[in-house]
Amino acid sequence: MALRNHPSETPDIAALKLRATSLRRHMLAMASGQGAGYIGQGLGMADVLAALYFHELRHDPGDVTWAERDRFLLSTGHYSIALWAALAEAGVLPVAELSTYGADDSRLDMSTLDTTPGVEVIGGSLGHGLGQGVGQALGLRLDKSPARVFVELSDGEMQEGATWEAAMSASSFRLDNLVALIDCNGIQADGKVVLDMEPVADKWRAFGWETQEIDGNDMAAVVGALKAARAAGGKPHAIVLRTLPGRGVPTLETREKAHFVRVDPGEWNDLIREFEKEAANG
Amino acid sequence: MAERARTLAMGQDEATGAGRAGVDAPFGHALVEAAKSRPEIVGLTADLGKYTDILPYRDAHPDRFFNVGMAEQNLVAVAAGLARTGKIPFATTYGVFATRRAYDYIAIAVAHSRINVKIVAGLPGLTTGYGGTHQAIEDLALMRMVPDLVVIDPCDATDIRQATLAIAEHDGPVYMRLLRGKVPVVLDPKAYAFRIGKAAEIRTGGDVGIISTGLMTERAIDAAEALEKRGISAGVLHVPTIKPFDADAVAAFAAKVDRVVTAENHVVVGGLASLVAETLFEKGLVKPLTRIGIPDRYIECGSVPHLQAKYGLATERMVETIAKAA
Fold first, then answer.
1. What are the extents of the domains in chain A?
2. Nearest to B262 by CA among B134, B245, B176
3. Residue B235 is part of which domain span?
4. Is B3 on the interface with A (CB under 8 A)?
5. Whole-angstrom Cα distance, residue A62 to residue A90?
6. What percentage of chain A has pLDDT greater than the value 70?
């Protein structure tokens, strides 16, 4: 049985990087087994998920309903591949089950449903996560719970107006137990982000959020930003994460940026070899 | 030229019962009452607290009341989040905004996971003169299509109080239409008991069976009395819960009469009339059906009595329609 996780006073950046590598390995196995998947987005967010599940989040892999757990809400349900990898690595789901990703009757769906252990809300209808995070943060505050709420959302998702409805309410309600993790990977369904979203960080600041902007693939930066976001100053926290889709597999890092990255069936073994070579070089 | 009635200001009482006693803000007071045994209740609104009668609750529990501003998607999302932490959120707005603006949130953030959120929706059907922007004429149809959602259209102050207490105890998502302000007492609180999913036979009759929901039950009762004086025997079955629908009670009631009439404060497509037709066909019980309700079109601005008379919802118009058909 895996132990409860809580933030370490002295985070081991090298160990967290190894966790991120392990998450990427799981994801590549899942995507190659399925022949498809949101591998670009998943690889891009691996460092953030490793930092959350193996450092920042207070959670109990043996009891995903623990009342005082920190909540992680994945608003972009299609990033499920990354969440399944993190939940399996953390001991919530069996690693062997990852091979069922996207298969009929599997719990590890292509887009998240909350019937799978460890999933806090149904993701995938973009714009839904942050408002539900506001409600959970309000509810936890009413209960005087120490638990915090982390909501992942994406740059494309900021085009949904409800994101800003939620952003306005979070700062009005002074929810400093709420952290928005905004994955800015520059892609959305139609390809490169179709509207000019910049300056992203200024938008969140203007909406009353304590805002940081970092390289989301730099583990030390991610860990540092998460620590800073613990501050109880009466403001919700936003971390703008600049991530590289396909991170860790050079061919995918440079491939044309697409919502559903094109990988030919015969390519997967080469990509995995490429990834292992990169991982071995640290 | 005769003096014409005018559209009243928002929140002025328009549709009180004909000659019946009224109760002020039955929903808000019932919510305060429910919170005595259910401290998990929280209240939310989207800048319509004053116009949805939730202020008695806010005044009793200011720390458990959240106004999210004019943002109905966020209203439902925040309510869903609160429910995930064990609260029982009652979220109020107008029916038009809850259903048309926040549909995806009601479906996915609430109903898909059977989250314990109660949406309380003002200005059902023709209870406002503010036209199509404010008249929720198709909300019952939209809401009854959402799986696992309980849908309620209460008749009067008695129904609202009892339904509010009942849905607070029900673990699951609910959409309830609201009558606000001074709401008439039509159903005798000593004799009537609201139960989720149950219809109530208010009056028996053999020629015509009026199956009604919401405020139309008041008119159905009055119409049945008027019809009796004209030698037509009319029964009334009040169906406050649109979903789950009491198909057995509807079929048993319809079996006793020669003609079925449906009466709803809603468009005649997709709501009560459609439910009754589906139910009776499925049970092999085919009766002539007269549908009383709002025609399948958007309605203009105007005074409420004028609009209700013009579009056939007023008692006198119901009597004419039924007498002609019977």
1. 13-280
2. B245
3. 200-325
4. no
5. 10
6. 99
Percent of chain B residues past pLDDT 70, beyond the cut? 97
Question: Is B316 near chain A, with CB under 8 Å?
Answer: no
Cβ-count burial of A67 within 10 angstroms (0-12 exposed, 13-18 middle, 19+ buried)?
exposed
Say if the Cβ atoms of A173 and B66 lie within 8 Å. yes
Name the DSSP letter for residue A247.
Answer: T
In chain A, % helix, strand, coil (3-state, to 5) comes to 45, 10, 40
What is the average per-residue pLDDT within B217-223? 98
Residues B243 and B120 in one domain: no
Cα→Cα distances B246→A209, B154, B249, B272, Å: 49, 15, 6, 11
Give A12's pLDDT tier (boundaries 50, 70, 90): very high
SS3 of B111, please? Answer: helix
Cα separation, A219 vs A224, in Å, equals 8
Judge if B36 and B112 occupy the same domain. yes
DSSP alpha helix (H) spans, A73-157: 80-90, 129-142
Residue in chain A lying closest to B106 (CA): A128
Query: Each residue of A220-238: pLDDT tens digit?
Result: 999 999 999 999 999 999 9
A124: left (phi over 0), alpha (psi -120 to 50) or beta: left
* Domain A13-280: CATH architecture, name and number where available: 3-Layer(aba) Sandwich (3.40)
Q: Is residue B17 part of a domain?
A: no
pLDDT of residue A37: 80
Query: What is the predicted ipTM?
Result: 0.97
Number of structural domains in chain B: 2
**Chain A nearest CA to B94, separation (Å):** 18
Task: For B142-168, write each residue's pLDDT tens digit.
Answer: 999 999 999 999 999 999 999 999 999
Chain B nearest-CA distance from A279, in A, is: 39
